[in-house]
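Suppose a classmate hands you a notebook page containing two proteins, each written out with its sequence and a corresponding row of structure tokens. How would you begin to make sense of it? This section walks through that situation. The first entry is reproduced here exactly as it would appear on such a page.
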Amino acid sequence: MGEGGGQREYQRVQLEANELRVALLEHFGFADFRGPQEPVVQAVLAGRDALLTMPTGGGKSLCYQLPALILPGMTLVVSPLIALMKDQVDALRRRGVRAGALHSNLSGAEREEQLQLALSGDLDLLFVTPERFRSERFREVEARLPIQRLAVDEAHCISHWGHDFRPDYHRLGDVRERLGNPPVLALTATATPAVADDIVESLRLVDPLVIRTGIERENLFFACTTVESEEEKIERIADRVAGSDGAGVVYSALIKDLEHLHGELRRRGLESLVYHGKLSAEERRSMQDRFMRSERDVVLATNAFGMGVDKADIRFVIHAQIPRTLESWAQEIGRAGRDGAPAWCELFYFPEDIAIQQNFIEWANPTLEYLLGVYETLRGWGERIQSKDLDDLRDELLIKNRGDNRVQLCLKWLEVLGVTSGAFETHDLRLVRELSPGELPDFVGSEEKRKQDLGALLTMVRFATKAEECRRVQLARHFGLPEPSGACGTCDACVDGAAWHAAHFAPRRSGAAVAAEDPSAGFRRGDWVRLGRGELAQVVRVEGSGKRVRIVVEDAHRLERRTVDPRKSRVEKL
């Protein structure tokens, strides 16, 4: 029941196949649907709940976007990342679609403007993060919003059995009921049978259409290579990057390992971008913008890089360290080859790397006692809480490793439950009510959850080391999908990977050749450069990309900063 009093009536239509294709062509320029898009669209038009799993880049978003343009009223889209929703809204607006978004990067006035457009019926789609449902202003008006459908993107975040669980997603079933139980379309690229069942249960889907397709594409080649040392791993990654012209992503779990790899690649004449959480927001935007515009840049990144990066021509995705779950690996390699051309996906497995993920699992599973300890610490601070910060809380709880995010997880649960409001970052964190341990979901702090996470890591290790069975068969079995028969022809268990790679990839062009085309290429934070008049300086920031790149340098003697255009000023990298 909605807060406006009474069950809403939701619009439903049924279109003939030819009518639906006319609408598809008119709104999106496509003559026909791909894969399972058509039955899912028809289910949404009929007001039926649905769950769709489909490969990354396979066209899931069209399944809620097209019905939003055919049916009256508004589709509310829940999306996990601001960058992701911004890209989607911008793309829709370029097509003339009335799309808007509510997120924390907007000013209060901008958010209010979007709300008024939605209230007046001037939006077909409104994108929100799950945190928005805790906003006091949104709660005031949600019953009056013309919501006819609810789309939940990255729906695996709902399930505590999944690889990317988020507490705010877990409460979307309550949100749906609060909104008047609109029909729901849940979408994700990766879901095991257990995760799919959890999504259906958590969102309270009624007689849903469930379509689960393969989680990978035929143009991707899968390989896993075991190495005996860190040095061997770096040599093999360098050889793979040097032998693969085109844009690529190399994932690593630790920032220090990314920076080390960056230096080792550079020592071999291979330039790369680096993307991680220690960079400023401007630096991360600059790195991502440059990568999006480039045809051959390589980015070394933590798994924070990727969601919302809709780049079709990524030719390879390499994992320098084993991911925590097979679902994480599948989602990350799904960013390669979205243009349908051949793409290479390789995991370098070094047994000692398992310890990294084991630590992450421990740090991702605070016990109930630990959570209560966080709560009692905040409570004990009293009015002093607003003069404290996250490091103070870490020190109080004897947390020394920054990778240990138990504190952040506990704070998130307290926020989601409405026990706290505000944040350390804005110096307005406060306790607004007492916590009762019984109100936490059963799986919070449970030993079962920790064991499940360790079991998922073991599954990932088995996949990395089981070289005699087709990788696609292993994936299908894990995700509960029909197993392919015969050799797939695109994995290292079925064919010679070296021969496949040689047939589809040319060696990377030298850094000198690229620099000749683009004299601004290759500058990174920390580089020492000599400027036109002989001044020695250090690069402190790179802004923009391509012809619009600028570097901010700090003079070594006067410690003054200035912005330099490498295309117009002589800049020699030392």
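The notebook's second entry, a different protein, reads as follows.
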Amino acid sequence: MTDSGWKPVLAGLAPEAWESEIDVYETQLVLKKRGKIDDRLFAETRLRRGAYGQRYDNGKRHDGVESRELIYPQKDLHKGPETLWDAPGMQRIKLPFGGVTAKQLGVLSELAEEYSDQILHVTTRQDIQLHFVHIEDTPDLMRRLAAVGVTTREACGNSVRNVTACPIAGVCRDEPFDVTPYARALAFFLLGHESGQDMGRKFKIAFSGCSQHACGLTGFHDIGCIARLRGEERGFEFYVGGGLGPVPHAAELLDPFVPETELFPLSEAVCRVFSRLGERANRSRARLKFLLKKLGIDEFRRLVLEERAKLKPDPRWTSFLSRLNEGAEAPRPRSVEQNGESEGPAEGFEEWRRTNVYEQRQPGYFAATIQLPLGDFTPDQARAIVDLMQRYTGDTLRTTVEQNLLLRWVTEEDLPRVHRELVAIGLAESGASGVSDVTSCPGTDTCKLGISSSRGLARELRRRLGAAQSELPAEARGLHIKCSGCFNSCGQHHVADIGFLGVSRNVNGRRVPHFQLVVGGRWQGNARTFGLAIGAIPSKNVPQVVDRLTAEFAKGHTEGESFEAWIARVGRKSVKALVQDLVDVPSFESDPDFYRDWGDPRIYTTGDQGVGECAGEVVSPIDFALAACERQIFEAQLLLDAQKPHDAAGRARAAMTDAAFWLARERSPELSQEQPEDILREFRVHLADTGAFDAASVGGRFAHYLFRAHEVDLSTVTSRAAHELIEEAQLFVDAAHQYHVRRSTLTAPEPAR
């Protein structure tokens, strides 16, 4: 890779057009400020430029980190936002395949220092995000990025998002060939391409060099490409229709071998079919995975091949193949100083080398992971890393889907030097990709959809597990833990060994932060196996849950048995029993800390109701009923484990129906639980069609899950379909909790004064 970065001359939107496009965006900002552009139109405009709104609270984040206090003297953020222009937001920056040069990282460090809260954040899609950026600063920020070959175009919005790839591609010992140039070329080919401008939702693409590891995570992408050889011919195992979100779908095989010459046109055809036939009215069902589920893989394949045949030949489909080696990485020539004597290894070097260093297929070279706590690093740390790159590596750095950085082309002799310099900047933590390297989405820190503090929880887990790492059994050190602040799965909790999904519960009239415990997912094998939630745990009890699960796994697994396999063998019932006593929440008076989220000193809810002074707490029948619905969902999981998908689906559907009955019964007291048709009708009339049910759920639309469940022929349900129905039932019952709490709050009498 050259110093200025790879020049994407094959792009659908060429670099020379970037400046004029930013000019257009800046004009749109002016028109919006004058009230000349519709709010919805401008929202999509800024999202396509990577500019997001974010949660805002007095100009600071609540994750317990003093360094996140804003240093932004030219803005008075403590007045509180009144308009789009007053409230800082988030700027997402695309890094195709996670690649970044020294010059680009230097510019990113300057932007973080000048325009944001002095933090660069690596996402689970290998992007960089800057938070607390004011929208009037975004055009200048974008121009400075464009000058070094980086764009924010289509980092968000209904578009082709950042194309991700295995961070060790090109140096991996198992890959048949390097997927980096293909990921890079496809990313710029689709940038601004007409086939991606009319999508109903976002579209994600990933590349992996092999199928056995997790580096590329192709198993849950809209398009997933795994490198394959047919003799000497290069090609890709081509998957479509994967996705996480509220209900995860594993990608399905479209073609076992797509020649490299067909990679671009086939990808374009998939995008065009999705644009034409994807859902538009209901955004919660507008991803490609739902279209694939509706059509089936055979019909979808037919439509894609039909679309491919219609495409007019484009020289860009194959012209990039003659330039695959352009910008190829190479080690930096060694200096005389580097060849001289050096100090001995710093403390902790051997453990860091064991857990953070990967031996490249190129003899004598290594890739070293820089573990970033929660994906964060500062401008000063970024500049120090630039210095490391310029002295020790081949101007090569990659971000990873586990929110870390990867230095490549480090010689064995330089490993102790690199480690010592990482120690000096506070980034030499060992245990990369292990149990203490917890992944998290922003959660309630900055995300408007966050329900529970996933960052705060992840920070606490990192602290505890990191301190106890040397005492942990070897079998538990390699587990993956991932936290999401809501059902959207940005923290990728579905594919973790132990995952957590943020929810809330109503306890004695007060809201309490909780996390659904998700087990049974699998990170390896490109993350094609998804876990299921087995119960909601109070946020403050989650660390104890992790302690028990890791200890029990270490004690009870057989040699070579994965955590996923152990869960399947011992059964979810046993796992739930192991943590059942941690479900209870003490009263507010006895332990108010349970009513605060991690890293936030405030009480979790600002709308606390008065608590009666009677001897016992009054619990409504609906609270009992919804708890019973959660029990039914868990029973459905046990039936699925017992290879009874028909019964499992029936139990999950019954859980949704019972929840709907108790909510609809408030409006229709004569409603009978024995008449499903009446329940559906009353729920539709009073809660679904009015929008009341979905409005109570933060960011979700789940009412339709109930009606679709009753359209399913239980006698034909497959295990996969039953798995999805259980996921949907859990989301529906969680939404029922939120609706009940909201309605109770609105109808509660004023407390006595």
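A careful reader of the second entry would note: The first helix runs from residue 18 to 33.
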